[in-house]
Amino acid sequence: MDILNALVVFLNFVFIPAAAYGAQLALGALGVTLIYGILRFSNFAHGDTMAFGTGVVILLTWGLQSLGISAGPLPTALIALPFGIALTALLVLGTDRAVYKFYRKQKAAPIILVMASVGVMFVMNGLTRILIGVDEYRFDDGARFIMDVRTFREMTGLPEGLALRSTQALTVVVALIVMVALFWFLNRTKSGKAMRAYSDNEDLALLSGIDPERVVRLTWIIAAGLATIAGTLYGLDKSFKAFNYFQILLPIFAAAIVGGLGNPLGAIAGGFLVAFSEVAVTYPWVRVVGYLFPGYEPSGLMQLLGTEYKFAVSFVILIVVLLFRPTGLFRGKSV
Amino acid sequence: MATNRQAASTHSRWRAPILFAVLAVLFVLEGTVRNSMFSGSWNTSLAILNMGLISAITALGVNMQWGYAGLFNVGVVGFLAMGALAPVLISLPPVEGAWEAGGTRLMLALAVGLGTLAMAKLAWTRTRSGILTVAVLIGGFIVYRWLFDPAVTAIEANNPARHGNIGGLGLPVLLSWVVGGVFAAAAAWAIGKVALGLRSDYLAIATLGIGEIIVAVMKNEDWLARGVKNITAIPRPVAQEVELQRNPEFVEFAASWGFPAAEASGIWVKLSYMSLFLVALLVIILLAELALKSPWGRMMRAIRDNETAAEAMGKDVTRRHLQVFILGSAVIGVAGAMMVTLDGLLAPTSYNPLRYTFLIWVMVIVGGSGNNWGAVLGAVTIWFLWIKAEVWGPALIAMLTGPMADGPVKAHLLDSAPHMRFIAMGAVLLLVLRFAPRGLLPEQ
Amino acid sequence: MSDAGFGNRGNRDASVVNLKGMGQIDGTRRSGPVGAGRAGDPFLIGENMTGGYGKGADILHDCTIAVEQGQIAVIVGPNGAGKSTAMKAIFGMLNLRQGSVRLNGQDITALNPQDRVKAGMGFVPQVNNIFPSMTVEENLEMGAYIRRDDIKATMEQVYELFPAVAAKRRQAAGELSGGQRQQVAVGRALMTQPQVLMLDEPTAGVSPIVMDELFDRIIAIARGGLPVLMVEQNARQAMMIADKAYVLVQGANAHTGTGHELMQNDEVRRTFLGG
């Protein structure tokens, strides 16, 4: 029984990728959950907002690279990120002004906002296609690895290697910083508390002198920021392809609902839960098992489901959680 | 609510005929006028119409769920795909050796899989023991994989270049349309049973998930329908173009109308499909209208408008919702089978939710929630726009960028012009939502 | 919630819509200009108010409600008389076709509710008057949202006034009992340091003991110099503490006088006080 090597394989193929992916999902789910909690609808355009924001960041990155500007060992995209967020926030605020505000004024049922978000999704999808096209791009530069397989082997003398890509570390670090900042904002600042108050009771927030339109604007800006950061980190870690950002909507929604819609803490927990389950269920465990039980030689790959079915995993988790805890793991807004 | 109903009845009763007539004119223009806007080809015009009719049936299915009961189904693509499997499994000729290779074992595996789920459910409801339920699931899963994996390997190894799938039953393709409906209904039953039974329903997210999963299954389970290797040569319910061109009588008939044989054969085939689709559409719309006007339909609408009151009157809301969800999905499944029949091809990679879920939603909303004729009108109109926007977008951009100097920006704009149709569809939906949220043909 | 075309469709699907905490007041409406008041006005007056919700029929007909500095004014009347509507009209939550609202020498008819809060009005709605998932302390902080100065002293005053909720300041307000929630609700409004406090049936749904206690607190607030305008179901108790009472019937003033006068009025006694 070789626990050390089994652990290294586990960390390398399950834990590290899942942590990075979980951080990306959590950031995406935070955006969805904030819009659900405060604007009261599920934003189908969130995936395309992520794609648009990332597209802008990529274009800016290329621009910076052609000017010879880089961030040293870090990806150039990090410098482009604030500008990408600003542009995405402008687009999203413009959308709110042109589309959603009308229904808010009418006090329309949220389902109309859901439908409108489908229209916005089409428009943003088209914009992203025009902006950057439908091809796949890689835009990570700077140092590729913090730890590569060979260095690890030489350091430890173990036969199994461990690689930590800089984008993975960056994803987790940036996500943690963003999450802490968001929680500090929501729980400690006056504006953040006003957002929570509006989510709790719109009319009373108004009767306390809170300007609802300011809360809405803040929410869109934060959601645009979260979407752009999540999208950029996802693109840095894997690659950018507009359609993938549309598909990631399902695990993001699943994460937000599993955690309890409207509950930011739940969105984070949900993101990591979905990511770890996806990776764990679709990973072929044969090597880990081989180290743990040297005598046992399994016939197959010990893979519960093919990687193509990773979406099924988020779905099954969703159903199981909803069957046993209808409001999500952390009590969400829904009853 | 009451004021809206009144507003609806004041709409001119000529509204629907006029809008349908305008649509017909568009198709005639497409068939006869050749300029930068229209192709002037009847073949193109009828091809758009045929796909439009299939979209109309899909939209009818969605409209039953949304219009009658207010259920928000965002997994339309999955139910279409479910239906699309039927022609492959029903009407393709059997694959030689596939059944012998592992058919029985495969069936057994699927039975064990379903049996496991049923047992787990039984174990949970009877004993409320989580450990027992999980044990049943794990045990069942192991047996299932033990049966399933070798069977699949054997089937996929059977003549993989041409087949590698389980094959069909060799039955008439029209029968598969009905079976497509049954397939989709079965999927809808499973998902509806779970998602509608929750304390507050989570149908949207559940259908979004099941849609992705069904498409993933179709892409990856090669034994089922060859996965991404596609299935071609699905039997046709109508004549082949080449046969017609070889038939001297047909060539003479075409010449008498002034059409070359090649063009005429295409038109003839498309007209044949159109007739079939029209019959199917009319039958479904008739049934849908009858259902809506029956006591069942009245109850559906009563539940939709005031669920609490309906529940207080002892109506089983969840059960009714499940019924209408299954029925609507069955209609979508029929459309899925029809689509594969029309294309003669099953290509799982083309099942894109934007095109097959959300575009259908645009059709339903634009047509008018709750109005069956509206769904048909919206579907054919939006499909026409969707196809033509691919032509009109570049024409528009070319016109707008005409005065611009040649350069990378102009080239980029011209290159990306076909993507304009996404923006156009979004804009149409947003405009309708804003200015006519009840659609082109509001509910009566 | 209006149905802009979709009726009740889709509204039960919790994965796409969130109806909890949704409001009815249009928060996008901008304020108009503030005009001059009239000489000899009471501190707060809604005069000759006529109007209703949205485009619906008028609920108020030439209705006038006023409260003087340092006094308690109550609005009583049968169910559906438009008592709460009159309060909401004074607070700018419905369209007035006629009439004006004037506060402290200014005409505020054109202000939206947010700006009326800034102008010095505090309002406690009848239901949904707390932020249930926020702590008691956060509820009070939200009450003081518009203030830029130190709010600690006011918060201590509120806790002194309502010691029961002071002990639960870190608890989510939604977990408190009905009476305590009402105290939090009143406390939240006081945190604004309003110049006038408006209460819409503060004792609805609480037990008689809690009701007496709440009345005591309200009297204490008014004796502290803050004018109070309130709608009350329990007409008898309300009139006993009222400096001025308005009896509304079908959206119009039926009787007006001091609480004592109206208690003596035979018609009022017969119709509203049960003999």
TrEMBL record, chain A:
Domain of life from the UniProt record: Bacteria
Transmembrane helix found in the keyword field: yes
Pfam families referenced in this protein's UniProt entry, alphabetically: BPD_transp_2
TM regions (residue ranges): 6-39, 51-71, 77-99, 111-132, 168-186, 215-236, 242-261, 268-286, 306-324
Example of a GO MF term: L-phenylalanine transmembrane transporter activity
Subcellular locations according to the entry: Cell membrane
One GO-annotated biological process of the protein: L-isoleucine import across plasma membrane
InterPro entries the record matches: ABC_transp_permease, BCAA_transport_permease
Keywords, in A-Z order: Amino-acid transport, Cell inner membrane, Cell membrane, Membrane, Transmembrane, Transmembrane helix, Transport
UniProt membrane topology term: Multi-pass membrane protein
Keyword Transmembrane helix: yes
Assigned GO CC terms: plasma membrane
Protein family according to the UniProt entry: Belongs to the binding-protein-dependent transport system permease family. LivHM subfamily.
PANTHER family found in the cross-reference section: BRANCHED-CHAIN AMINO ACID TRANSPORT SYSTEM PERMEASE PROTEIN LIVH (PTHR11795), HIGH-AFFINITY BRANCHED-CHAIN AMINO ACID TRANSPORT SYSTEM PERMEASE PROTEIN LIVH (PTHR11795:SF371)
Name by which UniProt lists this protein: Branched-chain amino acid ABC transporter permease
Origin species: Paracoccus hibiscisoli
Lineage: Bacteria, Pseudomonadati, Pseudomonadota, Alphaproteobacteria, Rhodobacterales
Automatic annotation (TrEMBL), chain B:
Coiled coil segments of this chain: none
Membrane topology: Multi-pass membrane protein
Main location group: membrane
Transmembrane segments: 44-64, 71-92, 104-124, 131-148, 168-190, 202-218, 273-292, 324-346, 358-386, 422-441
GO cellular component, one term: plasma membrane
Keywords from the named record: Cell membrane, Membrane, Transmembrane, Transmembrane helix
Cross-referenced Pfam families: BPD_transp_2 (PF02653)
InterPro entries: ABC_transp_permease (IPR001851), LivM-like (IPR043428)
Keyword Membrane: yes
Location(s), subcellular: Cell membrane
Keyword Transmembrane helix: yes
GO molecular function: branched-chain amino acid transmembrane transporter activity
Domain of life per record: Bacteria
PANTHER family associated with the record: HIGH-AFFINITY BRANCHED-CHAIN AMINO ACID TRANSPORT PROTEIN BRAE, HIGH-AFFINITY BRANCHED-CHAIN AMINO ACID TRANSPORT SYSTEM PERMEASE
Name of protein: Branched-chain amino acid ABC transporter permease
Source species of the chain: Paracoccus hibiscisoli
Lineage of the organism: Bacteria, Pseudomonadati, Pseudomonadota, Alphaproteobacteria, Rhodobacterales
From TrEMBL, chain C:
Domain of life: Bacteria
InterPro entries (alphabetical): AAA+_ATPase, ABC_transporter-like_ATP-bd, BCAA_Transport_ATP-bd_LivF, P-loop_NTPase
GO molecular function: ATP binding; ATP hydrolysis activity; branched-chain amino acid transmembrane transporter activity
Pfam family, one: ABC_tran
UniProt-recorded name of the protein: ABC transporter ATP-binding protein
Region described as Disordered: spans on this chain: 17-38
Lineage: Bacteria, Pseudomonadati, Pseudomonadota, Alphaproteobacteria, Rhodobacterales
Keyword terms of this UniProt record: Amino-acid transport, ATP-binding, Nucleotide-binding, Transport
Domain ABC transporter: from-to ranges: 44-275
Recorded family membership: Belongs to the ABC transporter superfamily.
